[in-house]
User: Fold this.
Amino acid sequence: MNIALDGMPLGSQLTGVGHYTFELARSLALAAPADHFTLLSPLPTSVVEVVDGSWPANLSLHKTDRRVVNRRWWSVGLPLYLKRSNFDLFHGTNYEIPLWSKTPSVLTIHDLSLFLHPDAHEPRLVRRARWRLPLMTRSASAIVTPTEAVKREVCERLNIDPQKVVVTPEAPRTVFQRREPNQTSDTRKHLNINEDFILFVGTLEPRKNLKRLLEAFEIVLQTTPLTPQLVIAGGRGWLMDDFAASLQQRGLSEKIRLTGYLNDDELCALYSSCKLFVYPSLYEGFGLPPLEAMSCGAPVITSNIASIKEAAGDAARLVDPLSVEDIVEALIKLLSNEGERERLSQAGRERVKNFTWERTALKTLEVYRRLLEPRIARIESV
Assistant:
């Protein structure tokens, strides 16, 4: 097989979809050494760090002729490029596939946040998604989602045949491994983080539910002798310009540390040394940060929403993200109970063994082969 994947998510600072795109492409190449995979983009891509130093020989990173950018990549540039190339299949890893093309296509839909939580996004992105995504789902030969929860949403909301949708769970990257205290102290010192801290990791945006987390944290400080620091790690997203100001108004600036975007080494150090990790998101397609935290041994508090329950199982303390009281109760219980923290830490490390990028790649390869089986059979018969 000769497979092209959308490389455009690698064109900026890597977050969720960028990491998904690269880890999937690399794992596909490692799992199927006889096949070839190309990350295809009309724009420059960021430098991708390969953790173990190996870049598979059957994985290419290809920047197309810059001129096609001016010819509308998805509607004109990419379809024409695929027509001239010999790719057997195109995988759109970020909600997009060519608007017209005879090349079979797989479409990854990470979540339906733009449909279900439009108030948490820029209006222009909501408008674009609402007219383009239905076109993409109808055009795709197959659709991939990270959880059964998102599959149900896609089928019900976009009226898609369930047979067309395949669930391929994602996984934490291998860089996330537990570190010893002496391996994390320099990072904490550099970031001005205390030894006793609660950690949140994610883009700062409304659906991450940080306002309720702040309210719960404030109650813990006011009603108990507990005095942890709250560390919020992540880049600033849409509708969060007033977030820092709200910290000042609450008088929490001294107890809360906003780190901004962190690299993998820094994240790994914080996951490994936090007293607990909290992720009270209102909506997720999968929710990788809780699993990353589990990989590093952190006890996890997260939301009892369908997609996260599917990934975290019973290895996390699940809370109602709409209930400040529920979040407060979970924070107090875990901060006060070392035995419960250790139980969740061990449960998380066991749970996360169920998720690897190799398994994700093998499930994705099954989708490719099922779509290309008639073509392969014709070639082999010649």
